[in-house]
Structures are given as structure tokens and as C-alpha cells.
Amino acid sequence: MSRLLPVADGPYAPPVPARELTVTAADGARIHVEVHGPEGAPAVVLAHGWCCSTAFWAAQIRELAADHRVIAYDQRGHGRSPANPAYGTEPLADDLEAVLEATLAPGERAVIAGHSMGGMTLMAAAGRPAVREHAAAVLLCSTGSARLVASAAVLPMRAGRVRTWLTRRILGSRAPLGPVTPLARRILKYGTMGPGSGPDMVEACARIVHACPSRVRHGWSQVLDLLDLDHGVRELRMPVEIVVGTADRLTPPVQARALAAALPDCVGLTELPGLGHMTPVEAPDLVSGKIRALAATYIPSARGERAVPVEESQ
């Protein structure tokens, strides 16, 4: 794995976890998990996106861990989770299910937030027993369920077969990203962030993305290219809120609107003017606030009420 480290200070520097553990998924993949905040507090689970790591959620962890138990994990092959030959939406679902079973007590409810591929993980795992048992509510940030390459607007040209073909070649490139240079920052900002993103945001994202091994980046790009999780969206039967930036070139607002229309219980769609794909970094307070509000609304322990066992609530 790359030795490139996240930023060391500021709001995007990863906080030190209260504890760390390694969870083993169904196929033997080892998943790195961090737990922040006080034991017994309302739980939040964070699933990051393609080419990212737990460091991506630094601002949310820092804000929420004061009074929530925040669980963040590295998708397989990302961050501190070793690469695994199994690529696909089912392995992503396996990993999330393993994390929930290892970190939450039986019947314990949590807000689960997924960004980009993390949101797709939730769609893939929507019908899994652990998600049905533990998900009190879900926040989907900058994500989509299908036709990702065709809808992506990374290239400034009219949608169609040519743009889709070129986009597929760019996103699926095997070339290493190399060091974080001024040019690399400009390219990453153009492709993944809004024009108003500050230098600290760009630097944090560039270090995280460039740390992802090229073979892992390529392997998961093939999964995203063929993604079809429309069926999983319909299985997300808990309350779901959606956040998207209007300048998102990777999962543009058309994806978020399609999700909102298909979800059984969409409780809100927020479109953030001028923001790009990296909404948890670009709008940290808003995303943290959405997670906090979902916890306060849908987790009984966050309201000081008795938690109702799952079998009683059905």
C-alpha cells in the first residue's frame, strides 16, 4: 500500500480512535475498523467511497464523536484493509454486514452513512439481515445505483456513446496517480470537487485518493462501470436522506433524484449549489448535521427512550 499519509492537522486530520479492530468478512477478507467516541452512545456507521479511506470522514468523526459512538471502516483494499481478489457488490455487502455484526449489540440501531461507493455498499446490502436489524436510518451522500459511467460529466462534452467510452477509459485507467503535485491537485479538484473548494479540502482529498493503490482503483472501477443496484434501492426500507452537490461530475444530481424517486421512504433530498462529489469534505458541517439529526429522530437512545428490540418493533 502507498505510504502517502493523510493531512496531519486541521479539521481534515483523522482523529485518533478510541479502539481499532480487524473484522473478518464471509470470504475471509480482513477489514480495518475504527471506533470513536463513548461506549453506549448512539451509534453511527460510516462507509467511504472509491479510492478513499476512514480519513475521508475525519470532519464527521471529529464533530460526532463527542456524543456518538462513531464506527468507520476501510473498504477492502482501501486504507488499512488489505487488498482481496474478490471485487463486486456482494463482497462490499459482506464487509458491511461483518462490521455491523462485530461492532453493534444485538438489536442495536445505528445511522449508517455512505458516500459514493459507500452508498452503493448500502444498496447492495439492503436486504441483508444485519442491515435490516441495525439500520435505524441511512444517509446517502453523492452516490448512484446504476449507469454511472454514462451519467458522469467528467468530460466537458455532450452525453452519448463517445463521452461514455472516453469516461470509461479515464476512470478505469491502470496508471498510478503519482505524487500530489499542483497539477494533480487541479485535476482532482476539477473531477471531484466544486470550484469553490478550499486548498485544505483539496489537499486532504488528494492525499487520500493518491494513497489508493492503482490496482485497487482499477479493480473497483470495473465494478462501478457495470453497477446495477436499482433493486437494492427498493430494499432500503428504512428512512433515507440524500445529499448531492449540483456540480458533482461523478454522480450528478440526476442520480440523486432517481434514488429519491425509487426509495420506499425518502425523508429528504438536499442539493448543494456549487458543490462537487466530495460532499462530506466540502460541506462537513451540513453532512455532520444531517447524521446528527437522523440519529436524534430515529435512534431511541439518542432521545433518552428505551430501545425497542427489533422483534417487538415489527
Keyword list:
314 residues; 8-stranded mixed β-sheet; alpha/beta; globular
Please outline the helices and strands:
Layout: E1 19-24, E2 30-36, E3 43-47, H1 58-64, E4 69-73, H2 89-103, E5 110-115, H3 117-124, H4 129-134, E6 135-141, H5 148-151, H6 161-171, H7 182-192, H8 199-210, H9 214-225, H10 230-235, E7 240-245, H11 253-262, E8 266-272, H12 279-282, H13 284-298, H14 310-313
Parallel strand pairs: 3-4, 3-5, 5-6, 6-7, 7-8
Antiparallel strand pairs: 1-2, 2-4
Helix pairs in contact: 1-13, 2-3, 7-8
The end-to-end distance, rounded to whole angstroms, is 45 Å
Number of helices in the DSSP assignment? 14
Q: How are the strands of the biggest sheet laid out side by side? A: 1-2-4-3-5-6-7-8
Number of strands: 8
* H and E order: EEEHEHEHHEHHHHHHEHEHHH
**Which class do the helix and strand fractions yield?**
alpha/beta
Q: Please tell me how large the radius of gyration is.
A: 18 Å
Mean pLDDT: 94
Strand content: 15-25%
Uncertain runs: 306-314
Shape call: globular
Biggest sheet character: 8 strands, mixed
Helical residues, percent: 25-40%
Describe the fold and architecture.
With 314 residues, the chain is an alpha/beta fold. The chain has helices at residues 58-64, 89-103, 117-124, 129-134, 148-151, 161-171, 182-192, 199-210, 214-225, 230-235, 253-262, 279-282, 284-298, 310-313; strands at residues 19-24, 30-36, 43-47, 69-73, 110-115, 135-141, 240-245, 266-272. β1 (19-24) and β2 form a beta hairpin. α2 (89-103) packs across α3 and α7 (182-192) crosses α8 (199-210). It starts with 18 loop residues before the first strand and ends with a helix.
